[in-house]
Amino acid sequence: MVDVGMTLEMVEASQMGMKAIGAALAVGLTGIASGIAEMTVGSAAVGATAENRDVFGLVLLLTVIPETIVIFGLVVALLLLF
Amino acid sequence: MAGISGGLTTNYIYACTRMRVRRSRLIPREDYLRMLNMGLPEITRFIGDTYYRPEIDELGTSFSGIDLVEVALSWNLAKEYQSILELVPGDLKYFTASYLRRWDIQNIVTILRGKVQEARSGKIKEVLIPAGRLDKVALDRLLAEESPERVVEALKGESIYPILERELPGAMESGSFARLENELYKGYYAQLIADARAGIKGGKMFLRYVELEIDIRNIQNLFRLRVGRIHEDVRELMIPGGSFSIEELQRLSGLEDRDEFIDALKKQVKALPLLNALEAIRGKEHLHEIEVALTRVQLDQMERMSKRYPFTVLPVLVYLEEKKYEVANLRALARGKEANLPGERLQGYLVM
Q: What domains does chain A contain, in order, with CATH numbers?
């Protein structure tokens, strides 16, 4: 990426831009993955709760477990940026 | 997620989970064993403490004893099946409705038999289970008809009408509805296969269930025929569409020796659980034991398939079948206790 004609400022700006794109991808893609996982778990959770209300607390916990994926993505993004 | 489209995935997961939860609530084996040592009033009370409570409470003022149990079980089964039909989405509904048509056949044949024997409409109504396409209102309309011919006439437009129209005169003449019933069920299975092959998503899984059901039914029929010592032409009595051809079934029915028959059957069967069950059947004497063993294999096999393909029509069918046998078990228990049969004898008739 570094062109012979580029100044130091331009290189630094480019590196910063790449980091920002990496961070965005880390959060964005893991967010989508969490969404898909939660869709599946959530549908089953609603089905189970419709039949037996006592399991609501348990299935709520199970539904948010895929959130860890996006949290990992967020951590990676923060590490990239700071 | 085989056999489902992306947009409908969540609906399938939702419905299949509900079926699994309902299945987990079915009466377990231990409770059946406990009920075997109870009398009829205790069994009624026991059932009344489970999800049959609304029906037992509602019907408690109109019926008592064995009638209360029978009618409450029928009502519950019908209510449960209708609620499932409302709950399942899209293509699952199509296949579920297709499966539930067997109750229409049962109800229509019951009405026809009742009409021939000039039974009161109220009495016939007690034994109907409106779990199929024909609901309570439609069945009441049929019950109001005066003669079997009028009942059949009222069914014009239904898919089973051509068979009824063709077979009723013969049935009325001979006084036996056996052939009519056979033809209706053969038509039903042919329709199930046609529905499975109609190109609707998930049809492949439904077809696997239908083939399994036909195979088990044919094997059960072969054993029944052996007990009845009928070795003549059985082609008319077998259901086409399974993994056995009708000619093969005819050849199997011709085998005199029981061990030879089981060996020949085992050569045709590929599924290991069924092979094991056939080996176990070798030592069984009574027909009901053989039938229960084969039914158990069918349910286990369906359960295995439903776990392999969890978001298809299979979990729904597993629940529908197991619920059907639960009601049959409770009915057998209640009837057996009413007739003072010992618990050990009754146990042999239960699919646990």
A: 11-81 (1.20.20.10)
